[in-house]
User: Which sequence fits this backbone?
């Protein structure tokens, strides 16, 4: 994790997408105060987030996994989690009702379906949609606002619903060194010390949240 502190200037402010891994709520934010163990995210929507989040940062092919350790109006402190979380009993995870539009594909992108995620937990979700039986076991989900597709595996399918195991891919501490070029580029564009300006410039934020209503 020392690479994070050395490769990202502490003054850098990077645009990020933040996804709550429990509810799949997604927000646009800025990330600053990078250090050995974490960063600070800045957004007027941080109160919509719960505990464990994924950060989508330009320059990384995978998301960063982190835990929110403190939260205040318009900002939250995040500790990075580079180690795998312990495998618990998936059926004991709390599931939350959501309404999230999603595009579902087979891995070769020869099949495409518009579906809805109707409940979610950290490790999986339940899809609702027509003809789900036509999908193969291995699928990809394109969730609006996230930028990266999320691979999944169908574990059951019946009566217009399917249970999906989400196969999240997260960055390691070694991967984070690649963020330096993104941070340097942000500084050259003058985006290092004005998060309020960054937020004002992001008028493309989708109303009602990037994933729809909950």
Assistant:
């Amino acid at each position: 994790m020392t690479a994070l502190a050395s490769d990202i200037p502490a003054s850098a402010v990077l645009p990020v997408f933040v996804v709550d891994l429990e509810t799949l709520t997604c927000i646009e934010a800025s990330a600053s105060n990078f250090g050995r163990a974490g960063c600070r995210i800045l957004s007027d929507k941080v109160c919509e987030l719960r505990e464990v989040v994924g950060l989508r940062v330009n320059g990384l092919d995978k998301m960063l996994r982190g835990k929110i350790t403190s939260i205040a109006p318009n900002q939250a402190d995040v500790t990075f989690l580079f180690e795998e979380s312990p495998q618990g009993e998936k059926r004991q995870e709390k599931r939350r009702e959501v309404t999230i539009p999603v595009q579902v594909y087979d891995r070769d992108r020869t099949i495409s379906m518009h579906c809805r995620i109707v409940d979610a937990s950290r490790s999986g979700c339940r899809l609702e949609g027509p003809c789900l039986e036509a999908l193969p076991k291995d699928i990809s989900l394109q969730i609006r606002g996230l930028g990266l597709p999320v691979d999944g595996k169908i574990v059951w399918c019946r009566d217009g619903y399917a249970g999906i195991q989400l196969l999240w891919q997260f960055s390691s501490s070694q991967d984070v060194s690649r963020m330096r070029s993104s941070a340097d580029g942000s500084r050259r564009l003058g985006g290092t010390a004005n998060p309020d300006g960054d937020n004002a410039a992001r008028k493309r934020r989708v109303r009602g949240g990037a994933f729809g209503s909950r």
Q: What stands out?
A: The domain at 95-167 is CATH 2.40.10.220 (Thrombin, subunit H). Helices lie at 2-7, 179-188, 195-201. The chain has a mean pLDDT of 79. The chain has two domains: 2-82+171-201, 95-167.
